[in-house]
Amino acid sequence: MAAPATTNRMQSVPNILTVCRIFAVPVLVVLLSFPTPLNRALAAFLFIVASVTDYFDGYLARRYNVISSVGKLLDPMADKLLVMAALIMIVACAEGSVPAWMVVIILGREIMITSLRGVASAQGVVIEAEELGKYKTILQIYAITGLCMHHTYFHIDFHFGGMYLLWASLILSVWSGIDYLRKFWHAAVRQG
User: Is there a contact between 76 and 70 (Cβ–Cβ < 8 Å)?
Assistant: First the structure.
């Protein structure tokens, strides 16, 4: 008897975490619109917390078998909104900006993959996420956190570290994007 009650209570928790991640986006934008050292540190903290909820919403949905259509729609959207908002706002910062072309490539890849997933899904083809994409995401989280912090704390140059990780993330973004495009192409050719 206890298991169904727990499952019922847990049913909405993954979606609540996803919605919280979406609500974190405007707060992140406001903090980075006024990029004082304190606001940048708060933005980095918020970005980390929001990124961690991405892990937990998926874990809880799988653990309690409460995967929903709403979650399947909102989760990737929340991820992309969070990353895109943070990168765009960092580009807009007068101090500690990143080259816009890097952000265009990263965001272009995300839009391309999302579009290809939609086309593949409509054709009944599922192309699983690869390890490269997961590593890319981890590097992006660390890079964006460092770039949000920007300043030097405890003798650590967070901007330099963030840029280093953003370069690595950019390489994996392009590499995994090409790999995904290749898999999509092979799947499309097989379907005729």
Answer: no
DSSP helix/strand/coil, 153? strand
Whole-angstrom distance, CA of residue 90 vs CA of residue 87: 5
| Helix axes 37-63 and 69-92, enclosed angle (nearest 10) | 160
**DSSP designation for 96:** S
pLDDT at 7 over 60: no
Q: CA nearest 22: which of 66, 60, 86, 74?
A: 74
Range 2-191 classified under CATH 1.20.120.1760: yes
- Tell me the pLDDT tens digit for each residue of 79-110: 889 999 999 999 988 776 789 999 999 999 99
Burial class (CB in 10 A: 0-12, 13-18, 19+), 102: middle
Task: State residue 73 phi and psi, 5-degree precision.
Answer: -80, -50
Domain boundaries of the chain, sorted by first residue: 2-191
Residue 156: DSSP 8-state: E
Tokens of 18: 């996803």
